[in-house]
Design a protein that fits this description.
- The protein is mostly helical and 337 residues long.
- A two-stranded antiparallel ribbon has the order 1-2.
- The chain has two domains: 138 residues, Cytochrome c-like domain (Cytochrome Bc1 Complex, Chain D, domain 2, Orthogonal Bundle), CATH 1.10.760; 132 residues, Cytochrome c-like domain (Cytochrome Bc1 Complex, Chain D, domain 2), CATH 1.10.760.10.
- It is built from twelve helices and two strands; from the N terminus they run H-H-H-H-H-H-H-H-H-E-H-E-H-H.
- 33% of the residues are buried.
- Helix 2 packs antiparallel against helix 6, helix 2 packs across helix 7 and helix 9 crosses helix 12.
- 43% of the residues lie in helices and 1% in strands.
- The structure holds heme C (HEC) (2 copies).
- The site of one heme C has 27 residues, from helix 3, helix 4 and helix 7.
- One heme C binds next to helix 3, helix 4 and helix 7.
């Protein structure tokens, strides 16, 4: 009797587990079919690859292997503790060569239509080639960088994980760097908090400065939108030099000495200012704007004397200082933890 009971139980449990096993196979195979047809990778796998791609881009950004002499990385000029800009008027490339322009911040470049002061690149990917191959910056060829990366066991392994290929190609190298750059967004500044509804986030001075910025001082005519740039080119009447700016790219006379309106996010940390690093302080910049810029026949018609009082000029500077965000500390992956 007892034996018969156990036999029945055994047979029942075999049926039960066999049924479970089959249904798992069926659901699994169903899922495989569904996934293969509509999305080759699950969301989790995609998210993990995206994370690895950003990590890879970050390492490349800090890796001096990208330059010809192995001494200069993107971060040598775009310094993390300087809001990814530089403290020099002109950048210093390989072999101590002085560049032609001031290093701008990489913060909030993700949405820019044009990159560089003259807009000669249209995407972060296209831009990165320019930086690597500029003889006055990293002085290397993309081909040589790829050869070095393909020989490096760490990069070979990581690129394979992200892109599934055993040979690292230019698109993948540039794509990874650009993906890291897109994560560099300045946010949570006192201004952002104020806009989000915290009316105490800005001091009275900064608030008055904000009203001037968007009103009488007409700054927002060009420094507009969430990134404080219209993405366009203007001649603001800086002292004339050999650098013709946008005109070299567009080959149009009317673009003479026009430069791209830079973002003002993190501006308190990105001195010196302008494409030629002419001014060391925001005070000097505001004095220049207040006087209506210099004399240049190609100067933008918006640039007129502003007649701001001393107090108003201080208020504007206070507002500019409120555009610095609270950043995550970004450390070089090569620094010892
Ligand atoms: C030798 C210093 C130096 C190095 C190294 C360097 N840059 Fe730059 N970067 C500059 C300068 C100078 C400019 C502006 C050049 C111009 O407009 O003509 C610039 C511009 C940029 C811009 C455009 C920002 C904007 O608002 O248009 C980005 C993005 C950027 N660099 C990323 C990188 C990346 C990525 C690397 C590494 C692959 C790199 N840079 C290496 C000096 C450097
Ligand atoms: C006609 C368009 C225009 C107006 C109006 C304007 N700017 Fe600018 N701003 C620019 C351009 C273009 C540049 C870059 C010029 C260059 O480097 O040649 C610039 C650069 C700057 C910089 C330097 C940023 C850096 O990273 O180097 C600051 C700061 C600045 N502007 C603040 C202001 C303030 C404050 C006002 C209002 C008083 C103002 N701007 C009005 C177009 C404008």
């Amino acid at each position: 009797m007892k034996r018969a009971f156990f036999t029945v139980l055994l047979i029942l449990s075999i049926f039960f587990f066999a049924d479970r096993a089959i249904s798992v196979i069926i659901t699994d195979s169903k899922r495989l079919v569904v996934e293969n047809r509509f999305s080759p990778e699950s969301k989790e796998v995609k998210a993990e690859k995206e994370k690895l791609k950003i990590e890879l881009g970050k390492r490349l950004f800090f890796d001096p292997m990208l330059s010809k002499d192995g001494k200069l990385s993107c971060a040598s000029c775009h310094k993390p503790n300087h809001a990814f800009a530089d403290d020099k008027d002109f950048s210093i490339g390989i072999n101590g060569q002085k560049g032609d322009r001031n290093t701008p911040t990489v913060f909030n470049t993700a949405n820019l239509k044009f990159l560089f002061w003259d807009g000669r690149a249209k995407s972060l990917e296209e831009h990165a080639i320019g930086s690597i191959q500029n003889p006055k910056e990293m002085g290397e060829t993309v081909g040589m960088v790829l050869a070095k990366l393909n020989k490096d066991p760490y990069y070979s392994k990581e690129f394979k994980k992200v892109f599934g290929t055993s040979q690292i190609m230019a698109d993948e190298l540039l794509g990874a760097i650009a993906e890291f750059e897109r994560t560099l967004i300045s946010k949570d500044s006192d201004y952002d908090k104020y806009i989000a509804g915290n009316k105490k986030a800005l001091s009275q001075n900064a608030k008055r400065g904000m009203d001037l910025f968007f009103g009488k001082a007409m700054c927002a005519e060009c420094h507009k939108g969430p990134d404080f740039t219209d993405g366009d080119f203007h001649n603001i009447g800086l002292p004339i030099t050999e650098d013709v700016g946008r005109a070299k790219v567009s080959v149009s006379n009317k673009d003479t000495r026009k430069f791209k309106t830079p973002t003002l996010r993190e501006v308190a940390k990105t001195a010196p200012y302008f494409h030629n690093g002419l001014f060391e302080t925001l005070e000097e910049v505001i004095t220049f704007y207040n006087a209506g810029g210099g004399n240049d026949t190609f100067k933008d018609s918006l640039k007129k004397p502003l007649n701001l009082t001393e107090q108003e000029q201080r208020d504007l500077i206070n507002f500019l200082k409120s555009l610095s965000g609270r950043q995550l500390k970004i450390q070089s992956p090569f620094d010892k933890k």
